[in-house]
Amino acid sequence: MIKIVDLTKTFNNHTVLNNINLTIKKGELFVLIGPSGSGKTTLLKMINKMETPDAGKIFINNENISKIKGTQLRRKIGYVIQSIGLLPHMSVKDNILIVPKLIKMDKSMAERRVYELLELVELEPEQYINKYPHQLSGGEAQRVGIARALAADPPIVLMDEPFGALDPITKSRLQNQICQIHKTLKKTIVFVTHDIDEAIKIGQRIAIIKDGQIIQTDSPQDMLSKPKNSFIATFLGSDRALKKLSKLLVKEFKKKADYVLQDEKEEVIQTNKKYVWVVDKKSILKGWIYLSENAKQFTEIDHKTFALNDNETLKDAVSKMVAQSVKTLPVCDKNGKLTGEISLTDIVTKT
Length: 351
Ligand SMILES: Nc1ncnc2c1ncn2[C@@H]1O[C@H](COP(=O)(O)OP(=O)(O)OP(=O)(O)O)[C@@H](O)[C@H]1O
Fold this sequence. Notes:
This protein is an alpha/beta fold. The chain is built from 16 helices and 16 strands. It has helices spanning 40-47, 70-74, 92-96, 98-102, 107-120, 125-128, 138-150, 168-185, 196-202, 220-225, 230-236, 240-245, 250-253, 303-306, 314-324, 344-350; strands at 2-11, 14-24, 29-33, 55-60, 63-64, 77-81, 156-160, 188-193, 205-210, 213-218, 259-261, 275-279, 285-292, 295-300, 328-332, 338-343. Strand 9 and strand 10 (213-218) form a beta hairpin. The structure holds adenosine-5'-triphosphate. Adenosine-5'-triphosphate binds next to helix 1. It comes from Hippea maritima (strain ATCC 700847 / DSM 10411 / MH2).
């Protein structure tokens, strides 16, 4: 959908982007990451013609954007920036309505859209619609910024370090929201950040840019498994094996768990296994039995704190194993029903 061909940009004899080639697929959440000054913002701004290239071309849906007027192009591309850029004298509603008004969207449809979008970014419409930017927290203002970028239903949204200034908890919530919005609306999102954890968390593909050149483009998993060179490996961090685990879900790695019914736990016989899970008649996890050569020891457990659920990551699994000093953990559904188990050996050998 967005094709960048041999793109070069120079500011005052300094080549900021050097022969960039990149294709971003339709509906993809694509992350551009790199050190400060590496040219990320400049590249983003060229996609919506806020900057013009010195050489090279950009195609959107096979159309060369040099043939499209900047103002016209920008109405079809949402743009979210770190400093948010909400107009201070306008209410939340009027800020969101800026582009719908410009494109002369039907008034009642536009107003309905404001409600829909505020709900989408999890801001209660009645509570926020008439507020002014100075009455919002940083996270709320950023969510209004996202709603505004989506107001005219653009197929592409560019996001330039949108969560850079937020505290870690708000940042994490908004990252989850962006992933959810991306899943629901299926927009093409180009997201600039210099936070590698953010890139790995939200990106379907990541391009790492350095001194105006793209060094590697890959899915987070592939990049973490096979960094192309030492710059990428350093950029990904010495804990990149753990980061890789943060992209893998328990449900994809769990295996069948052996169990006995609570009422029959006295009858457990020795096997070559060191333990067996204990469940009640409804398959709710109640504990485990440690089986040694000459003893059987039952330990009661609370599935809420001890077990994993399907949507936790393998990083969560390892962290819980370390915290609980065990090498295997049960996996339960939300009611505590045992659905499998996961072992440290499996994590180490299969990832
Ligand atoms: N309009 C401009 N005029 C002159 N130099 C510019 C202009 N815009 C950007 N630059 C320079 O181009 C280089 C790349 O800037 P850019 O903002 O694209 O980097 P970035 O990777 O987004 O950095 P950061 O992560 O710090 O935001 C920098 O050296 C910057 O000073």
